[in-house]
Design goal:
The chain is mostly helical. The protein has 19 helices and nine strands.
Amino acid sequence: MDRYRIGRLSGTWSNFTPPIRGGMFAKGTSDTTPTTLDASSAHAEALSKFFNPEILTSRKKASSNPSCSFHGNVPSRPTHTSQVPSEEPNNTRIVQQALEDEMDQYPSLDTKTQQAIVQRYRDLHDRVKIDGYYACQYREYAKELARYLSIFTLFIVTLRAGWFLTSAALLGLFWHQIMFTAHDAGHQGISHNFVIDTLVGIFIADLCCGLSMGWWKSSHNVHHLVTNHHEHDPDIQNSPLFATSPSFLGTFHSSYYDFTFLWDRVAELAIPYQRYTYYPIMGIARFNLYLLSWLHLLSSRSTTLGAAAWTRPTEICFMLIYWFLFGYCLIWRSIPTWTLRILFVLVSHIITMPLHVQITLSHWSMSTSDFGEAESFPQHQLRTTMDVECPAWLDFIHGGLQFQAVHHLFPGVPRHNLRRLQQLVIQFCEETNIRYKRLGFVGANKDVLGKLGEVAGQLDLMIKCQKHMAETGESGLY
């Protein structure tokens, strides 16, 4: 790592805006000698050798110059020049008001407060390691394997007996359950070995379920880094069908997809009814995952994996085998009529709906405000994520996803240890005065539906206000 070092800082580091969020660049210097910086001097002054505002250029210009490197920060990413519809709602005031209200509910963003939170988080992490929370309980996976094999066996038995819709439901249940282990493997929470866990994940996701593990890891890793940021988190960018924040009530650019979502007629028609379309769309969400999987594997994003380049051909091979087994051997050869074939596909995919609902419950009703780089990692994760409470005997239904806030703080901890770890997180939140939101499954569903309805109401209000201003020339209503 020495070749990447530009200096050494003694003391507290202040975060800078990363390039993906509009950070600026400075031309490289010929002096490659590492510099020792003392925290007693002003941080910005101490780093002036590398972060000189007079020589900053835009990210776009710097990216075309190999002699440039990232230094410095700016408050927002570059403006995109995509054409914006003239009737697009103006969400600026609502977004700003939400930011101000939420800042009053969480600890101060001053350096002293946030550094204290970070230190307590590091202390907690040390305890997590010492107390063995990262140790995988393989006996629990033996139970999981027994359940998966039992469900799959029943699927085969009912299929051979001609109980096609029952068989379809069992196949959907099998997909629903086994993907929890793929999630564990994606976070290297089983063996903690990249190759082993990647192979386990690809076997489950690609071969058993027809979904790309590489696509999931690509988007999910970003989701963990910039949780619920409307420009950067692909997991909440569901325009034009859903808007979980006023930030989506207009044109926005996705840094992950490098795509500008324009506010259009489809969004204008869909968003007002999103609380009613939520469950139906979750019921068929799996079909969209097939599309995203193939788009990823056929894109350049999956061809630049370095030492992990072997995963792409492996995934393509396994997914082709899946479609041969599911599409040809099962749907075409084993089911006699087109009516039953269509019903089989629909039932098996709709049965997985609780998994998609579970994933959205933990984030869709939570904050999407951007507190900036001053906010510490643990505070950001707890502000944008909530847990879903359930009795221990129902843990197998939720697959560990009910402890999403705990998981976001410690992604590598195996899910069978999350319930015990939750008690330490509760204590951490009490000590740091960070809100730890927990709701029951029904309450969490109501919370998400309420948020979808609230955003739809905000859209309606913005459109009415803008129409009124256009007709009367008044500006005081908005």
